[in-house]
Amino acid sequence: MGSITSDHVVLLATGGTIASRADSVTGSTLAADSGASVLESAGAGAGAVEVVDLMQKGSYLLTFQDMLAICAAIERALAAPSTRGVVVTHGTDTMEETAYLADLLHDDPRPVVFTGAQRAADHDDPDGPTNLRAAITVAMSPEARDRGALIVFDGDILSIPGTRKSETSTVKAFSNPDLGSVGTVTEDGSVRLSPAPRRSAPLDFPHTESNTGEPARVDIVAAYPGADATLFRAALAAGARGIVLEATGLGNANAALCEAVRSAVLDGVVVVTSTRVHAGPVRGVYGAGGGKTLEGVGAIPSGLLRPSQARMLLQTLLSLELTPQVIAQHVRQRTGPAPV
Ligand code: ASP
After folding, report:
1. How far is the CA of 256 from the centre of ligand 1 (A)?
2. Active site annotation includes 275
């Protein structure tokens, strides 16, 4: 890391579309630009920024270990008192996962802001430079303190739990269908934020190197009309210690899946029920294999968290080597009616 000693933002560059351009041989779009060139694209007036190149990857390639490495770099950046805030440039596909992990672990009032782009750096009209300027503005902003991690994208400021990529290609890539955005940032640098919500206590940093180096396996299994328990059992056979059920509606499955959940829970596997539906909470209402039956056999409803973030929560808690009972308490505490 460089040596800016006055107040500044640390930019952690990880790749993604904001750093991508078309490969001249294959024509496919690949992360290629350094953090310095991503910053340069944002132009003058971006303020004092120290750049750290962490990785150059599309976020669809990131592992849990990569995401932990990003969170460790955030901690290192915040160890310097002259760091006012941190910006992470990141692919959009799995930004909701890394940002959620950072939010779960973040134990500091200073802002950590994730941003990226939908249009590559070599696009005629890229959105990355504007998003990056906005993210730096928010990271420097006193109003953005005490909020954990944030996503800044297309002028919106979003808190992380429940926020997800909701558009594959338009520039307004992220939304929080249940809670909306928490603020806005304009091109002229004005930041408006709603009052900071109460936050759950941060989780300990999981040090997965201390065991086999592999994080606990957590799979997502979908319920759909006619689904049997074959894939659920395959996940268990592959060593899953946690399973997120991507259920239908309010969080419903069927009798075969409920039976598989019952025996997995008895074996110490943690099962969380989420939903494939765009918005609204998961709730145990229906019987005969529905959400009430699932709760009855030990599945934990994910509240407003969708499968991507429910899986990160479970993987983090399992990596902390907590018992299934303690994990269940943590999940319930973070997925209660609000905040999620
Ligand atoms: N579409 C993605 C992006 O915005 C690819 C990725 O997630 O890296 O960067």
Report:
1. 37
2. no
